[in-house]
Amino acid sequence: MALFRRGGPVVFEPYGYRKRRSWGIPRWLVLLLVGIAIGAGGLLYVQEEYLPARLSPEESQRLQARVDELGAERDRLQSSLADATKQLQASETEAKRLSAELSGAREQVQKLQQDIVLFQDVLPPDPRDGGAVDVRAARFSNDNGRLAYHVLLTRETKSARPFRGVLQFVVSGARASGANATITLDPLDVQLASYEHLQGVLPLPEGFTARQTTVRVLDGPNGRLQGMRVINVR
Known about the structure:
Helix content: 25-40%
Distance between the termini: 181 Å
CATH class of one domain: Mainly Beta
CATH architecture of one domain: Sandwich
Strand content: 25-35%
Number of strands: 8
CATH topology of one domain: Immunoglobulin-like
Oligomer: single chain
Largest sheet: 5 strands, antiparallel
Number of helices: 2
């Protein structure tokens, strides 16, 4: 029978029968490669669709230069801020010093006002009573062809409004020829709250020597007389 036929050679396999191995690609490697491909594709898709565009080398250099420029500007602003802070601190210190000086000046002004009130009280009264303005004191002298004057006017502050008028000097003396004469000098504007010092010089006619001056306080040019006093010229 064919079942027992021994016509062909018999191959001896010392380790027994084994199935011949296949040299195909393993499934895990295929899955790994597919996963890498999908991930790379997804990354490219997300980068193209959702992420900012990638910069070229030139653009990167310009961006870096801009960053450096902004950094320098930041440093400059910080330096300016520090200088401004120092100046502010110095200004605050100066303001405190000026405030202290102002406070001291106010105290001195208040003391001077008290002294002036006392000074007004001890001054001799104007001998001409009844005027709205008192000529409390005056001094006149000849000064190289000019009349030097210093006049103190006072007024009772019954009204909140200051007095506004003019101060006029009527000067008696001698001309260069020796003849006696009386001249009226140009009026001076005056504004008086409670007291006022008026000091200065006025020109006299050439060769004129003043001997006596009448001080007249008027409520305006050619106005009503508000105060008067006669003073000898030194």
